[in-house]
């Protein structure tokens, strides 16, 4: 008897379920995605007991006829692709034809659907992968899938389920994440008969974003919008001051699909370069629209991973969009009460020139003024140089005030940023020096790394890192950037090659050079405990203003923090 | 244990030993000194786990014993002690009492048994060298320093080898950081016995520390045993653990082939380089040497500060060329050449430049150009 057997279908569906159906939230994800693929505009999700007892997803989509409904339960049966070629231009969220049979294999499953061609709908009841009953029922157009007793025939999986709260948390996360990419669809989520959340169509997409990222940061999110040819990037990224310690606050969507993509994450970080402290992650929602034929989604069963045909283009576009946005928004923009921009050393105090709007003083005149102010604020961002200097705290921090805030500037961090910007500017403008090596450094690499490094040789040479192939996977380094002459170059080159081979993006040699510049800036910068004259402080602020990234020192630490006067008034109990 | 020492006998060595014991290490006890009594002397031992020091100093021994005491504090106590005679006495539980009738310190000692073992030295094929010559060899090679996180053994170590030719015997020390190389020879009289031995790599840090203990007017013994390099004086022994690794084949680099030989007054050349490097900075360190017929022009350009140039007459009869160098590399090498005139051996902007004294060929420096 032969040792190898073809698995019975029920068993193979169970195995597939292992990949696709990890926990109740994955069922919700698959079903909601199906509903979206069916062009639904209203999707209701009902969950009981964290998804253990019941998961029901009802939509008003195109629905299925009697025969289609039966076919949909077969493995690899799908309406989403037909031909080989379709696999490379997938416009739908699903396409594998695995989800329904897999879920049906591990639950008590009821499918009710009506495509409105016949008068009646179809209801199919499946238990553990076996069809128990098929009947005609009255049903509205659309599809309703009811899952009862998930994992009833997989006690091991069932045992690994967490508490109701945890599982429900996952489900809420999954649903809110999906809603982000589908602003034109109404979603409703119920748990044990109670409404958890409702995402209406009219609502601002921002509200959906705040749902996943948290309400408190609403004002710290910046909008991104970029269209290049057939590529479109929209979304929100957080101000670099709002960070998390994990990447969980990063939501990336490609053509409506929530993915975890290394390339895009890398690009996001590149956009934040110099603004984040080590080990911190920004919050972001990025929605990418890429022509379907330029994305390969057929990489991962749960489709978390994808591949881009034009990796570099997408990477650079994202990085560029993020960095451009941050460059314009990650600057201090202190609110001002005055209608005119403040001038330093002005003779009169411009603050009190206009009556403040108080209770009982809501005349139209004032309203108009207020509007004018608002408009002005949009254009007239307060600059460092416009701040009124209060003094120096502990010979370390510079205290300033704007009309509504107290601003504290770290003099060392600020000066570091200024010096770094100068050094960097210089090296870009005038080029870099190279130190030739008396004893060339030999580097042995693996095949992949060698191949990757080989392609980078011309690019590295422009950065004064001169490398030559030396036969096989061996390379020799003939000259190095003079700024790195004091350090060992080999680990750096190996790292560049490894990163390039792994992700297609090199650990920048540029960054290593920046490190040297940062060190120089750090050594050259004024220290804490260093008294500064008013003149010095003013010049420091003026120079800081000119920097590209004035809000962070080159290590990513903030150069300033601020407290609004409201905060003080609250603290002193002046207002409640 | 109890002993009395003379401040003058020990203050000098205690000061120099701080370089070893002051280094942060994961083993706290290496910040201590081990003091052991002999019949009429004490043995002081210190180590940073790479370099060990052992010295014997006369003392009045009242009772025998061994202590481990914080090196920094012991040095400071001895240094500022009001009288010449200092009594050191262990009471109990590693407590150490230092003082006389008026001044008293109670110091928490450490358990001397925790002190790392110093390699046991015996039967070493020592050979003699004049300490001034040895100090010079170290000075001339450790000018090429090591970055703190540089792991390359051939940069961390100085290559030490013994060379036997038909008519000469010499020891040679070679140092490099990949961009430049310094080589010093010490030639022995051919009648002197020089034991054979493999070339070894001695850490620059250890050699730098050790050279502090050497006085210019003595003859010392040096030798290699196992993986240790040993320097022995009358009453003091220093042991440096050798580095394991290979050293690049440097022989091609030091070959004196066809090159333009240009003679300079050492002091004038040095001052010229110093003047030209006033305008250099960390990110613009290069100077350009323009060679024309019988003329050398050195220029510096720094985008932020400005430019400088200096002309000088030389003997040069080749094709005009322009070569950039890090002037610091030159200054460091010219500084250690003890002659009034030096020779540069220059080929072109791709090849290394050699630098040496006119008469004394025991030192050779090699510097690779920059590309600006």
Explained architecture:
The complex is a heterodimer of chains A (576) and B (372). Chain A is of the alpha+beta class and 576 residues long. Chain A has three domains: 9-199, Heat Shock Protein 90 (2-Layer Sandwich); 205-329, 2-Layer Sandwich (Ribosomal Protein S5, domain 2); 343-576, MutL, C-terminal domain, dimerisation subdomain (formyl-coa transferase, domain 3, 2-Layer Sandwich), CATH 3.30.1540.20. Helix content of chain A is 35%, strand content 23%. Chain A has 16 helices and 22 strands. In chain A, helix 2 (24-37) packs parallel to helix 6 (164-181), helix 6 packs antiparallel against helix 7 (205-213) and helix 11 (411-430) crosses helix 14 (509-524). The radius of gyration of chain A is 30 Å and the shape is globular. Mean pLDDT of chain A is 80; it is low at 336-380. Chain B is α+β, with helices and mostly antiparallel strands and 372 residues long. Chain B has three domains: 2-114, DNA Polymerase III, Chain A, domain 2 (Roll), CATH 3.10.150.10; 127-250, DNA Polymerase III, Chain A, domain 2 (Roll), CATH 3.10.150.10; 254-367, Roll (DNA Polymerase III, Chain A, domain 2), CATH 3.10.150. Helix content of chain B is 20%, strand content 41%. Chain B is built from eight helices and 26 strands. In chain B, strands 6-2-3-4-17-16-15-10 form an eight-stranded antiparallel sheet. In chain B, strands 14-11-12-13-25-24-23-18 form an eight-stranded antiparallel sheet. The longest helix of chain B is centred in the N-terminal third of the chain and has 15 residues, at 7-21. The model of chain B has no long low-confidence stretch (mean pLDDT 90). Strand 19 of chain A pairs antiparallel with strand 26 (370-371) of chain B, so a sheet runs across the interface.
